[in-house]
Design brief:
mainly beta; two-stranded antiparallel ribbon
């Protein structure tokens, strides 16, 4: 616990600013959309169209990095 106290800031996740688009990740049928929450924060979303009779997959990548890193 003593060591964690002094190194706690190194355990935090800092956002990256690489701004990769879906095309940069070879996702040519995927759209990049920005949503604005009620508090004014912008949220970047990648949307890939839904095909009939297919399952839907929602991926929440967490707070470290961005979706292009996954």
């Amino acid at each position: 616990v003593f060591i964690l106290y002094f190194y706690q800031e190194k355990l935090l996740y800092y956002p990256t600013n690489n701004n990769l688009s879906p095309r940069d990740c070879s996702l040519h049928d995927t759209q990049e959309i920005y949503l604005t929450a009620d508090d004014g924060i912008k949220i970047q979303v990648w949307y890939h169209g839904i095909h009939k009779n297919k399952s839907i997959f929602v991926f929440l990548h967490g707070n470290a990095g961005d979706i292009a890193n996954r």
